Structure formats: C-alpha cells, structure tokens
C-alpha cells in the first residue's frame, strides 16, 4: 500500500510520460493502482517500455503519440485516451523542452517553440481535461513548473517565462474549477537528474549543487512522489498551489 493512498480505478494521462520525470510519475501512479495513458512525441520505444513496466505492476497502460503544442493532436490524444480508459481522473502536464541561450542570442524560434510546448501545450491539455472533469465533478490537474519560474535563471528567459506562465495558469484554473471538485496544482522541481539536466556542463552542475541545501541532485522519483500526493484523495483540499521539490534550493 502506497504512502499517499490507493489510486486503484483512477485513470491518468501523463504528457511526455515515456521518459525522465514523466516516466517516474507513470510508474508511481501504476504502482498505486492507476491505469495510465502515456503520451510521447518522439520517443516511441521509451514510451512502449514505460507502458510495459506499468503493465507489470498490474494496471492497464497505453501509449499515445501527440505533439502537445498542436490543438488537433491534443484533441485526438484525449479522444484516444477516453476510448481506452473510459474517463480521465488525473492529467499531468509534464511535457517540456528547453532551448537555452542568453537573451541577446535567443532566436524567435527558440522563444516560440519553448512557449508552444511548455505553456500552450499545457493550456490545450487543461482545456480538454477541464471539459471532462467538470462533467465528472472530480479531477486532478498537475503541471510541471520549475524553481526557475520562481527565481529566474540566466540563459532561460524563454523557459522561465513558460514555467512562470504555468503558475498563473494553474492558479486561475484552480479558481475556476475549485467548486466542482477539481484541483489544479503545480510542482516546481529544482535540479532533477534526467536527460534535460544531463546536457548541463559539469562545472555548472557543481555550482548548482552548492546551492542545494539537501546536498544532492533530485531524482525523478522525488517528483513522482509529490505528484502522487497531489493526485491522491489526501490532497482533496489543496488547490492553486505550487509545491517545490528541490531539496531546499528555492526556499
Ligand atoms: P526530459 O527528460 O527532457 O523529458 C521531456 C519529456 O517531454 C519527454 O517525455 C518528451 O517526449 C516530452 N515532450 C517534449 N516535447 C513534447 C511535445 N511537443 N509533445 C509531447 N511531449 C513532448 O525532461 P524531464 O527532466 O523529465 O522534465 C519533465 C518536465 O519537468 C518538463 O516540463 C521540465 O521542464 C520539468 N522540469 C524538469 C526539471 C529537471 O531538473 N529535470 C526541473 C524542473 C522542471 P519525447 O521523448 O517523446 O520527445
């Protein structure tokens, strides 16, 4: 039995759920008994592997290809998820990209693409999910923001804007849906060991580590545990919040 309670019978859709933090969330939810739809855009094999690992935990798991920045693909993804799962109780907006550069070198495309995936993608998914959850009068929407939204980060003007935007979106939607049994929250991870942070040069990593009171980098499972809590019945009275999972980095 999991610490935060059972998710048996719950149906979850996790964007970018095939690898990194999304994969850890899919596995955490599956271990708690939830059936999962795992979205991916490029990594079909990783998504398939994650689904197979979830199935080993005794739940149903499906993969769905969709670029979350495209409205038609998001609509089709929700149709497919509904056809396979019957309902959606939990949406995790996890899909995200970085295209880092100092402002003076930041191209229009790199600005637009990061905003399109990280912010528009979440908006498109939230709109689909809200429609279903309003009818159900229950649901959980959890979005992956970042400590960078709270503190800023040189070289990430585009990424920080997208992640700060997610916080405003989360709080606004939380107000819209609170009376209907739907909670909307954000997670703000610090420095979590995944492919996204593997790309950071060693010297910069060492410097970042010095700013983490916990004295270690975070693991995807650290974030997944927080997502599980927010998805659980135990978090029914928590909405519009930003939960930092950062070893004390941004307190
Ligand atoms: P990651 O390892 O780079 O994985 C990114 C995921 O997003 C992949 O599953 C990828 O799918 C998916 N994705 C990217 N573009 C997509 C699109 N257009 N449509 C659908 N899926 C798309 O990143 P991560 O470290 O696990 O990060 C997950 C989330 O946490 C992101 O939102 C990130 O910003 C946030 N976060 C991460 C950290 C950290 O330190 N790692 C810190 C704070 C916040 P494919 O593999 O199919 O391309």
UniProtKB/TrEMBL annotation:
Pfam families: adh_short_C2. It comes from the Bacteria. Keywords: Fatty acid biosynthesis, Fatty acid metabolism, Lipid biosynthesis, Lipid metabolism, NADP, Oxidoreductase, Steroid metabolism. One of its GO terms (molecular function) is 3-oxoacyl-[acyl-carrier-protein] reductase (NADPH) activity. GO terms for biological process: fatty acid biosynthetic process; steroid metabolic process. NADP(+) binds at residues 16-19, 94, 159-163, 192. Coiled coil: none annotated. PROSITE patterns: ADH_SHORT (PS00061). It catalyses: a (3R)-hydroxyacyl-[ACP] + NADP(+) = a 3-oxoacyl-[ACP] + NADPH + H(+). Its EC number is 1.1.1.100. The active site is at 159 (proton acceptor). Catalyzes the NADPH-dependent reduction of beta-ketoacyl-ACP substrates to beta-hydroxyacyl-ACP products, the first reductive step in the elongation cycle of fatty acid biosynthesis. Homotetramer. PANTHER family: 3-OXOACYL-(ACYL-CARRIER-PROTEIN) REDUCTASE, 3-OXOACYL-[ACYL-CARRIER-PROTEIN] REDUCTASE FABG. NCBIfam families: 3oxo_ACP_reduc, PRK05653.1-3, PRK07231.1, PRK12826.1-2. This is 3-oxoacyl-[acyl-carrier-protein] reductase. It comes from Candidatus Avidehalobacter gallistercoris.
